[in-house]
Amino acid sequence: MNILSAEKIGKAYGHKVLFEDLSFGLEQGQKVALIGVNGCGKSTLLKILAGLESPDSGQITTRNDVRLSFLPQEPDLPPEKTVYEVVFRSDVPAIRLIETYERLTHTDPTSPKLTEVINQIEAMDAWTYEVKIKEILSKLDVDYPDRLISELSGGQRKRVALAQALIEEPDLIIMDEPTNHLDLASIEWLEKFLSTSKQSLLLVTHDRYFLDRITNEIFELDGGNLYRYKGNYSYFLTKKDEREQQQLAETEKAQNLFRRELEWLRRAPKARGSKAKYRIDAAHELGEAARKRHDSAEVTLQVKGRRIGGKVLEIKHLRKAYGDLNLVDNFTYTFARRDRIGITGPNGVGKTTFLRMIVGEEEPDSGKLRTGDTIVYGYYRQSGFRFKDNQ
Ligand SMILES: Nc1ncnc2c1ncn2[C@@H]1O[C@H](COP(=O)(O)OP(=O)(O)O)[C@@H](O)[C@H]1O
Ligand SMILES: [Mg+2]
């Protein structure tokens, strides 16, 4: 039985129709990744399923007793609340008890109420829950319970919201790009956490490895349609390719037929009036089908006209430290054309500083950075684009 079903739902913003007549269900224990190109409506669909946004048509039904939590792409948390308040905002009795326990141990450890709460936790067998909550908070680096939400960075807010969604232990968890602000260690922990949990899952992610480790089914939102694939990402790619080849073959068939019908129409223009109307109409329809170009979903980046010399970037004996913290120690590397390099490491290890040295926003302590003459950097900052006031 489905824990959640969508029936013929449709949504448009102005003239832009995101989807129409979309129907599907989620079963207990199913772990699904929702994928699709940017702007195709994934976030909107998740918001509709989570009940934060209403569809223009159709309806969402959830099984009666289902508890659901939702992590939006950009969580909207109350700015005046503390992290602690947000993380523990739940009606689940065990969470309420643990919250009281945590609060009293820190503010009023001799209170008789505390003994009472400890007994209740004992009776509910809820200590494992407490351990789990602590694990979630520490693995997601949410270790600033007293700070106000308004003081947090976007990434910290997302981690607080993620912690809160996980702590709830819902039956169904819907997540929009959960790994965006996590470092590698947290991502690996989250992979294990989600893949071993019995919860049903629907998530949007651009991280193929994350997707493969957690989900066993893929929903693809493409041109307003939802395609389902029971398998991992490689399986999806194969099947998608088959589907597109088939569409292409159909379009080509229509084009050939259309060409023949056009010739027929042209052959005897004078007699057109007497030509069967149905055949002329059919030819027009064929024209439509033949024009149905297959839009590739892939994003292609074009580099226009600039000749790039062989040398891209040479780094020699680069060193950088902040006080005692050695970020880069005698690093030498030559970047070649077409290199694609990922830099990984836990938070605070110096990844951003390294990039800032490359683009010249930060001076190294010693060493040399030599850039090819025709090289222009594209740098997308962690904090997004920064605009000057007059831009
Ligand atoms: N509240 C809104 N008002 C108007 N347009 C919106 C709104 N939310 C999203 N859109 C538009 O709908 C499209 C789909 O957005 P979204 O669901 O965020 O896509 P995705 O998550 O797949 O990138 C985009 O073109 C976006 O600009
Ligand atoms: Mg989105």
Short recap of the structure:
This protein is of the alpha/beta class and 391 residues long. The chain is 37% helix and 23% strand.
Description of the molecule:
The chain has about 400 residues and is α/β, with parallel strands linked by helices. It is built from eleven helices and twelve strands. Among the domains are: about 55 residues, no CATH class; about 60 residues, Rossmann fold, CATH 3.40.50. Helices cover about 35% and strands about 25% of the residues. The strands form three sheets. The chain has a six-stranded mixed beta sheet, sandwiched between helices. It has a three-stranded antiparallel beta sheet with strand order 2-1-4, with helices on one face. A three-stranded antiparallel beta sheet has the order 11-10-12, with helices on one face. Helix 3 packs antiparallel against helix 4, helix 5 packs antiparallel against helix 6 and helix 9 packs antiparallel against helix 10. It is flat, with a radius of gyration of 28 Å. It binds adenosine-5'-diphosphate and magnesium ion. Magnesium ion binds next to helix 1.
Keywords:
single chain; 391 residues; alpha/beta; Rossmann fold; six-stranded mixed beta sheet; three-stranded antiparallel beta sheet; 12 strands; 23% strand; flat; binds adenosine-5'-diphosphate; binds magnesium ion
- Radius of gyration based on Cα positions: 28 Å
- Mean of all residue-level pLDDT scores: 86
Reported for the largest beta sheet, the result is: 6 strands, mixed
Number of DSSP helical runs: 11
Instruction: State the strand order across the main sheet.
Output: 5-6-7-3-8-9
Principal-axis shape equals flat
The CATH class of the domain at 311-371 is identified as Alpha Beta
Query: CATH H level of the domain at 311-371: which superfamily?
Result: P-loop containing nucleotide triphosphate hydrolases
Look up the CATH topology of the domain at 311-371. Answer: Rossmann fold
- SSE pattern, N- to C-terminal: EEEHEEHHHHHEHEHEEHHEEHE
Bound molecules: adenosine-5'-diphosphate, magnesium ion
CATH architecture descriptor name of the domain at 311-371:
3-Layer(aba) Sandwich
Low-confidence stretches: 295-309
Find the structural class using helix and strand composition. alpha/beta
> Helix coverage percent of residues?
25-40%
User: In total, how many beta strands?
Assistant: 12
Q: Give the DSSP E fraction (strand runs of 2 or more residues).
A: 15-25%
- End-to-end CA span: 54 Å
